[in-house]
Write a structure and sequence with these properties.
single chain, alpha/beta, TIM Barrel, 2 domains, 10-stranded mixed β-sheet, two-stranded antiparallel ribbon, 30% helix, binds S-adenosyl-L-homocysteine, binds iron/sulfur cluster
């Protein structure tokens, strides 16, 4: 397994960003700066409610304090390097972190609600053979501040600072990286984004997707506040899953499903199993029947994701007819299955296409 560099994005500047801090921590910071507690609360409102990412623009704070914040306490070190616009309205963001590393986030508008797809690591070490992110390996962990900053920066670009997203925001941890190999920072970012006195994005509106890191699935099940859980399955038999998602050798399917079954679900909650459809590899009716056998009796649904190809990847997408036949096999056996429409393919923003490239095409 790859060793991570542990440095945080702020170590090169010595300045710790404000995004990620709780209201109490910002009140404590105000005290440190010789300011009354209410200044800390104002700061909190500026960062999370109004999304003012430049201290100089926090006009309700005294000028001296703004100047001090600008010099010593940046709100975030994450900035937009480039935005790619898809013909379907999807936007792919190439973001710079404080140390020059880059990650990607994707904004996906749907009529009822926007979805922001965020990264949890710079690259990924899991090495799934159908995923472009795997090609860059993992360069480093992201901090909770960096993970949460993606949502603020993207919302500001789309709607402008201070403008509430008109129909709320879903957040999915399905960008670059394996969230459960950066568990603590991911969960901290969830607390930042869901804090009722701040961004107030309900954990029910967030989904963490994992390739199946079993010990962390158990931890996740014990969290008091947690997002929905999605598991990337990609194959119903170990022999094939070993090839597609190499950590399956460590965390095989039967153990993975047992861990999933142990997660206590809310009243209307279901697990999601993601299944990337690879032409001639995992998309036969027989595979669908095996999959249905595995998931029978679970409160779960299946999302069938047409493979998003790239020149470096050795797979083709299954045809729509094949995906529909696969879906029929599942539904006929009582398993809810949905076909995911690819978004942002023309700008390399779709699932598995994120590789922090500064060009529109993969
Ligand atoms: N690392 C996590 C989350 C990021 S990947 C995970 O693997 O779950 C998000 C989803 O994209 C996963 O379900 C993955 O199986 C899928 N995916 C990866 N590469 C893909 C590709 N080229 N085409 C379609 N889906 C892909
Ligand atoms: Fe990592 Fe997920 Fe891509 Fe696999 S599919 S390499 S776990 S980002």
């Amino acid at each position: 397994m790859v060793r991570f560099r542990t440095m945080s994005s702020s170590s090169d500047t010595g300045r710790t960003p404000l995004v990620g801090r709780t209201r109490d921590e910002l009140v404590a910071l105000a005290a440190e700066l010789g300011e009354p507690a209410f200044r800390g609360r104002q700061l909190h409102d500026n960062v999370y409610r109004r999304r003012v990412l430049d201290p100089a623009a926090m006009t309700d704070l005294p000028k001296a304090l703004r100047e001090r914040l600008s010099a010593e306490h940046p709100v975030t070190l994450t900035t937009v390097r480039e935005v790619f616009h898809s013909t379907d309205g999807t936007r792919r963001y190439l973001l710079s972190l404080g140390d020059g590393e880059a990650v990607e986030s994707v904004f996906i508008p749907v009529p009822s609600r926007d979805t922001i797809c965020i990264s949890s690591q710079v690259g990924c070490a899991v090495g799934c053979t159908f995923c472009l992110t795997a090609k860059m390996d993992v360069r480093r962990q992201m901090t909770a501040s960096e993970i949460a900053s993606q949502v603020l920066v993207v919302l500001n670009d789309v709607y402008g600072p201070g403008v509430e997203a008109p129909h709320g925001t879903n957040v999915v941890f399905m960008g670059m990286g394996e969230p459960f190999l950066n568990y603590d920072e991911v969960m901290k970012s969830v607390r930042t984004l869901s804090s009722p006195d701040g961004m107030n994005i309900s954990p029910r509106r967030m989904t963490v997707s994992t390739a199946g890191i079993i010990p962390r699935i158990h931890d996740f099940g014990r969290e008091a506040v947690r997002p929905e859980l999605a598991i990337s399955l990609a194959a119903p038999i170990d022999e094939l899953r070993d090839e597609l998602i190499p950590i399956n050798r460590k965390y095989p399917i039967a153990d993975l499903l047992e861990a999933c079954r142990s997660v206590p679900l809310g009243t209307r909650e279901r697990l999601t199993f993601e299944y990337v459809m690879l032409d001639g590899v995992n998309d036969s009716d027989a595979m669908a029947r095996t999959l249905a056998g595995l998931l029978g009796g679970m409160r779960a649904k299946v999302n069938l994701i047409p493979h998003n190809p790239a020149p470096e990847l050795p797979f083709r997408a299954s045809s729509l007819e094949r995906i529909e036949a696969f879906q029929r096999e599942l539904v006929g056996r009582g398993i809810d299955a949905y076909i995911r429409r690819p978004r942002g393919r023309d700008i390399s923003a779709a699932c598995g296409q994120l590789a922090a490239r500064p060009t529109a095409q993969a």
